Amino acid sequence: MKKYICDVCEWVYDPELGVPDQNIPPGTAFEDLPDDFECPDCGATKEEFSPMGE
Question: Which residues, including other chains, have CB under 8 Å from residue 13's CB and lie 6 or more apart?
Fold first, then answer.
């Protein structure tokens, strides 16, 4: 699964880790995150993330 980076603060969403603080379990693909997902560091929206390595 591909990692995604926040365009605002460069926090990385790693699907292998999930985001336990937001009840997002490990193994959750970025595409499967809720539409209201926000970066845990800066509050950026899901639309403000880019796939890493592109």
Answer: 3, 4, 5, 6, 19, 30, 33, 49
